[in-house]
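As a warm-up, study this chain.
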Amino acid sequence: MSEKPDIPLFQQYQYAFTGHIRNPRENKRPQGVPARRMKVYNELLYNNLEGFLLACFPVLHKVSGKRKWAKLVRDFFSTHRCHSPFFRQIPDEFIHYLKNERGEQPEDPAFMRDLAHYEWVELMLSISNKEIEHNRIDPDGDLLNARPAITPLLSLQSYAYPVHKIGPRFKPTTEQKEDTHFAIVRNKNDEVKFILINPISMRLLTLLQSSSLTGKGALLQIATELQHPDPAVVLAGGLDILHSLYQSEVILGTWKGCDNM
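Now compare it with the structure written out below.
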C-alpha cells in the first residue's frame, strides 16, 4: 500500500493495517505485526461480512459457486466503502455496490443484479418499521366502489428474468429473459410472501398506491389504457384480482371517510 506522507505516521499505519485486512493479496502486512495475529483479524472481519451476505443472498451464493462467490465478496470488501455502521445494513450496501460500483464483469451472470435485489427485498420488508393504520381502514369495505387500502408493507418489483426460478439447475441466459412482476408483502404473521402477478395486476396496484382512485376508477383507467372494447369485462376480471389481493393481505380493506373517485 502506498504511503501517505501528508498524514501522521499512526494514520499511515492504520491505512496499511486496514488495507491489508481488506485485500491481503494486494496490500502487504504492516511491519511489526505478527503474521499469525494478522491472520486472525483478516479471517474474523471477512467471515463476519460474508456471514451477513450469506444470510441474505443464499441463492446467489449457490449459483455463483465457491470460487466466484469468494471473489465477489472479496471485491466488495476491498473496494466498497460502507456508509452505515449497522451490520444489518451490509446487504443494503452490497446492493448499492452491485448496482453502482461493480460494473460489467465477464464472470457475472446477466441475472445477478436482479436475483440479488429479489433476495434483498425480503430482508428490507422483514425489518421495515412501517405501521398499518388499522383505525383508518374498513376491513369489510367495498373494494370496487371505495378506495382500496394497500398495506404499507408492500414492495412492487419487476425483473427482466424469472428470478423465482433461478437456482443451481436453472441459470437463465440473456435469451431466456422473461419480464416478471411481484407483489412482495409482509403479512400479519410477519411472514414475507412473494406473489407472482401479471402486468394488469401490477398496473392496478401501482395506480392504487399512487392515486386516490376507487377500485372501479382504477380499473376503468386501465380499460382506457388498454383500449378495451368492453370495460365491463375489465371490471369483472379486476374485481376478482382485488378479492385475490385482499386474501393475500396486499389489500387490507378500504379507507374510511374517503370520497369515491
